Amino acid sequence: MPSLKDLRVRIRSVRSTQKITAAMKMVAASRLRRAQEQAEAARPYALRMERVLGSLAGGMVGQPGAPPLLAGTGKDAVHLVVVATSDRGLAGGFNATILREARRRIRDLDNAGKTVKILTIGRKGRDSLRRDYSRLIHDSLTEIGRRRVSFEEARDIAARVLALYAAGEFDVCTIVFNRFRSAITQIVTVQQLIPFAPPASDAAAADLGGAVYEFEPSEEEILGELLPNNLAVQIYTALLENAASEQGARMTAMDNATRNAGDMIDRLTMNYNRTRQAVITKELIEIISGAEAL
Amino acid sequence: MPILFELVTPEALLVSQEVDMVVVPGTEGNFGVLPGHAPLISTIRPGTIDIYEGAAITERIFVVGGIAEVTPERCTVLADDAMEPDSLDRGATEAELQAIEGNLPGLRDQAARAAGPERERLLLDLRQLEREQNVARAKLQAIAEIAR
């Protein structure tokens, strides 16, 4: 049976843990709001880009002149897996779900006889994957979106991927990240970046009432400009979704932790009071029986 | 009858308003967009977009390239980045241009001598630098136009 002093120390320590988790929850909540706003602001561009690409790329798929970002290299031998995680932990299952999916994918590709290369974003992904797949990791980026994710960063990552692609280092590129649904649900998502799968162009065509776009300069040139940009946008969107998911997951995890700490404090306090009463009773009995013995 | 003009960058929707006419700096020359324009998709070079109400320019925005999509009712500009021409600084841009032009010959030389993947990488860098050079030049031109 722990002594009164032990219990007091214990309660104090749990209480300070609770203070920390409550503060982390508040911070995550405000960051989540900011991340959501940012994701909201980025949506119009992505939507319109998709519309333009849909009307452009729809006719290009499968044609001999299609740019390699759209048509692929014609092979399927080397896969680049971009694993987007966070730099910091204590975010519930956020990193674990991404890493589980990434591992499953790497194993599947490996079993299918493909060569896998990994590009990790975020310290957590690097640390975890380095244990099993250190020879597959092509590069690791950390400190992405430390304060807020910027398009500049997404463009830099896209430029790296494009340079690898141009050098023939891989044939297919996918990104693994968490899509934000709500603070409680995040959906781990695997998205193919290269070759780019264009969205259906029906919506764009309907919008024009059947008229056909003129292109200036040629379709190929516009696509050549648009596709690398689109890659950056896709990565940017993934990073934003990831940022919102991370804060959402952290908020939920810290909320649970705060509640658990509260429960624990209640239990310990009850225990403490019982023990205190038992001590008083014991002392009384000792006094009374001492007096009776006289 | 006005036309809906939208200007979006990857980070935000900057403008979404009804205007009488916009003049967009297309890669193959400026083009004006009035309501009922034929559907068009064009790339954009660095330059200023002019928004007209009636016959007067009410707003000018500097864009650093991107793409424009025109339909009879709408003109959407997907810009890589956009800023107010007033916020451009002449001295800083000139210094930037000078730095870029100082680096260009060396990089060109390196790219010409390199081979294989290294060459690909250098060519990408080179193209990026040339793009920045164009942007800086266009900025200076925009500043000069504003001053006039």
Report on this structure.
The complex is a heterodimer of chains A (294) and B (148). In chain A, 63% of the residues lie in helices and 14% in strands. Chain A is an alpha/beta fold and 294 residues long. Chain A has a five-stranded mixed beta sheet with strand order 3-2-1-4-5, sandwiched between helices. Chain A starts with a helix and ends with a helix. The model of chain A has no long low-confidence stretch (mean pLDDT 88). Chain B is an alpha+beta fold. Chain B has two domains: 3-83, ATP Synthase, domain 1 (Sandwich); 88-147. Chain B has helices at 90-113, 116-147; strands spanning 3-9, 12-19, 21-26, 29-33, 40-44, 47-53, 56-63, 66-71, 74-79, 82-83. In chain B, strands 2-1-9-8-5 form a five-stranded mixed beta sheet, with no helix packed on it. Chain B has a five-stranded antiparallel beta sheet with strand order 4-3-6-7-10. In chain B, a hairpin with a 2-residue loop joins β8 (66-71) and β9 (74-79). In chain B, α1 runs antiparallel to α2 (116-147). The radius of gyration of chain B is 18 Å and the shape is globular. In chain B, 28% of the residues are buried. At the A-B interface, α1, α5, β6 and α7 of A face β1, β5, β8 and α2 of B.
| CATH homologous superfamily title of the largest domain in chain A | ATP synthase, F1 complex, gamma subunit
- Largest pleated sheet of chain A: 5 strands, mixed
First-residue to last-residue Cα separation of chain A: 32 Å
Instruction: Name the average pLDDT of chain B.
Output: 87
Radius of gyration of chain A (CA) equals 28 Å
Residue share in β-strands of chain B:
35-45%
What multimeric state do the chains show?
Answer: heterodimer
Counting helices, strands and paired strands, the structural category of chain A is: alpha/beta
Q: Tell me the span between the first and last alpha carbons of chain B.
A: 31 Å
Helicity level of chain B = 25-40%
Strand order of the largest sheet of chain B: 2-1-9-8-5
Give the count of structural domains of chain B: 2
The CATH architecture name of the largest domain in chain A reads 3-Layer(aba) Sandwich
Number of helices of chain B: 2
How many structural domains are formed by the residues of chain A?
Answer: 2
